Amino acid sequence: MGKPEIQKRILEGEQQGLVEEPEDAGEETEREEAHEPPKRLGRTASLRARLGSIGKGTKRKLSLRKRDKSKEGDNRPDTGATGGEATLDTTTQKKLRERTKGKEKALPPPPLTQPEVGFIPGRSFVGRVLECGWEVKEEVVRKGEWVSGLLDVRKSGALTEFIVVDRHRVHRVPHPSAVPGGAETNAVTTATTTSFNSFMTTSTTKPSPAIHPPSLTLEELALLALNGIPAYRAVRTFMQAFSGLAKPASGPKPFDYPPTTANGTFLGGRNHMMADHEPHRRRRALVLRGHDGVGAMAVQMLALRGWRVSVHVPLPGPHDAEESQQFMVEAEERVKLFGGEEVVFDDGGIGSDPWWDGGRLAAARVIDGLKEDGDVFDAVLDTIGGKEVREASERLLKSVGSLVPTTPGGGLIPLDGQTPRDRASKKSGPGQFTTLVGDVPERTIPTAADNFRAGLRSLKFGTGSSAGGGTAGSGSREGEEPRGKVGYAWISVAQDVDWEGEGISETIGNVLRLAFEHGIKPTVPRISTASASAAMYQWKGGAVPFDQAPEIFVDGDGPLCSGGTMVVKIASN
Question: Where is the composition biased (Acidic residues) (predicted)?
C-alpha cells in the first residue's frame, strides 16, 4: 500500500466528519517494514483503538523530546564539580520539582476547625432510664427505673433532655412523690427505720403495712447527689478525726447497722450520738453557709451524730432593715429545723472588699470574731474557700479553750432563747478543717500543683502545730497563745472516688439511706425577702422551668450566689 492511498483514506475520513491526526513518518515507515496491516480509519475504527493510537503518538513525542534534552545536557560545559559533588541538570531538577509538586498535592487537607459550642451546665440530675448498655447489670439499674446521678465537673451537660452517663455515676431511686414531703418540717425531727424495697439491701426493722415508706420529691432527688455527696464525705472526715478519740473500749461501736457497702462507711448508726464525742463534752462544729446547699445537708448529718453546730449565714447584700430582719428570722427558723445550735451572721461585706471576693473576707472576719469571743470549736466545714478563710479557721481551731465558760458575743444568736452552754469549754485532741473549695475558688478544676500542696498540708497535720498539742496553763509561756493540732482535708469537686475508695454510686446510696431513715433531705425552697421587687424573691421556690434557665446563671444577685442551689425542670414526668 503506497502513500497516495493512505492520503486518500484520510480525505475520505474527513468527508465523513471524523478528525484524525496522522502519525509521523517514522512510525509509518516502521509499520510498512514490519508488513503490518494499516489502521482502519473513519467509522470503522473503534474508540478504544483511536484513543490508543493517540496515546502511543503522545508517548513517542515525549520520548523524543527527552532524548533531545539529554543530548543538550551532554554538550553542556563542565562546572568544575569534583570529589563527591554532583551537578544536577535541568531535566533532573524539573523531575524533582514535579515529584515534590505531586507529593504536595497528595498531602491530606488540613483538618477543619470544630465550631465553638456553648458550655452546657448542670451536674446533678434525676430521670428515667431509656436504654442500658450491655455491660450494665440488672442489679445496678434496669430500663424504665428512676435514677439520680452526678456528672463529671469537667464536662457537666445535665441541662439537656437526654444524656448518656456512666453506670458508676448513677444510683436507682424510688419513684418521686408528686406532693412535697416537707423537707423543712420533717428534717431532723423525725427518724424512720423503714426499708424501701430494692433500693437498699438491708434494714433492721420491717415497715408497718399501714405506714407507707417516705418518698422524696422530684426537686429533692435532683439535688440529692449535688448536695449530699460532698456533705457526706466532709462529715466522714470529721468521723475519721474524732471517732477513735477519748472513747472507752467498752463503748458502743460507731457502726451498728449492716453496711451498705463493703467498707461500711454509713454514718447513721443507732449509737451515732456516742461515736465522735469526749466523755465530758460534745463536739462543736462551725459550718460556713450552712443555711442552704451542701452546708444545709452537712448540718443535718452533724446534728444526727450529736454535734453542736453553729451555722454561718451571709447577709444578702445591701437591704433595708425590715428585709434584713425577715431574712434573719427565716434563716434562724430553718437552721433550728436542721438541728443547729446557733446562727452567726456576717456583715454582708464592706466597701473595701474586692468585688470578686465572694464573701471570703466577711466570713474570715466572723471567724476571727468568734476566736476573740473565746469560742472553742473542734471542726470547721468550709464551703466558701480561700486562703483567708483557711488561715482564720486554723487560728480558731488551735484555741483549746478554758474551764470557765464565757458569755456569747454580739454576732451569736441562740436559737432556743438561752445562752449556749460550754461555748468555751476546754477541749482535748486536734481540730479538723475540711474545705470543699480549696485555696483558689476561682479555679474550679484543681491543678496538679493544687493537689500536691493539699496533700502536703494534710500530711503535715496542721502548719505550726506543737508536737503534743498545747493546753491552757500547761507547757505554754505567760501571754502565749495555746496551740493545738489542726488536721486538713479537701473534698475536691473533681474527685470521683473518696479517700476510702467509695465511688459516686455508693455515696448516693448512703445519702439516700440517710434521707429515708433519718429525714436528711436537700433544701429546695429558698430564703427570700419580703419585697416582691427584691432580687431574691423570684427564686423563693427553688425551681424554674427550662426556658428560664439562662436567667439563673448571672453574677451578683443571682440565686447561685452565697452557696445557693436551683432546680431546672427540663421535662415533666
Answer: 20-31
Residues 6+ positions from 9 with CB-CB distance below 8 Å:
41, 42
With 0-12 / 13-18 / 19 or more C-beta atoms within 10 angstroms meaning exposed / middle / buried, residue 192 is middle
Domain end (from 13, 36, 59): 59
Q: What sign results for the dihedral spanned by CA atoms 42, 45, 48, 50?
A: negative
Cβ neighbours for 393, distance < 8 A, ≥ 6 positions apart: 286, 367, 380, 382, 433
Sheet containing strand 124-128, edge to edge, reads 124-128, 146-150, 170-173
Residue where the block lists cell 474527513:
14
Q: How many CB atoms lie within 10 A of CB 89?
A: 14
Q: pTM higher than 0.70 for the full model?
A: no
Q: Which run of H or E residues covers position 366?
A: helix 360-372
Residues 6+ apart with CB under 8 A from 372: 409
Rounded average pLDDT over 418-422: 50
Same domain, 206 and 341: yes
HSE-up (13 A, CA, CB side) for residue 92: 5
What is the span of the domain harbouring residue 368? 124-569
Q: How big is the chain, counted in residues?
A: 573
What pLDDT digit, counting tens, does each position of 60-109 carry? 665 666 666 565 555 555 444 444 444 445 666 666 666 665 555 555 66
Could you tell me if 53 and 129 lie in one domain? no
DSSP one-letter code for 197:
G
For 498-554, give the DSSP string. Answer: -TTS--HHHHHHHHHHHHHHH------S----S-TTSTTGGGTTSEEEGGGGGGGS-
| Domain contains 81 | no
Question: What is the rounded CA–CA span in Å between residue 389 and residue 459?
Answer: 20
In a domain, 153, yes or no: yes
| Shared domain check, 178 and 41 | no
CA 31 to chain centre: 83
Q: How many domains in the chain?
A: 2
Distance CA 461, CA 487 (A): 5
Q: What is the pLDDT of residues 242-297, one digit of tens each?
A: 876 544 444 433 333 333 333 445 666 555 556 677 777 888 999 999 999 999 99
The three-state secondary structure class of 442 is coil
List Cβ neighbours of 312 (8 Å cut-off, separation of 6 or more): 286, 287, 288, 289, 290, 343, 344, 345, 346, 363, 366
Show Cβ contacts of residue 462 under 8 Å, excluding neighbours closer than 6 positions: 394, 398, 430, 431, 485, 486, 487, 488
Alpha-helical (H) ranges within 1-46 are 3-15, 25-33
- 42, 59, 76 — which closes off a domain? 59
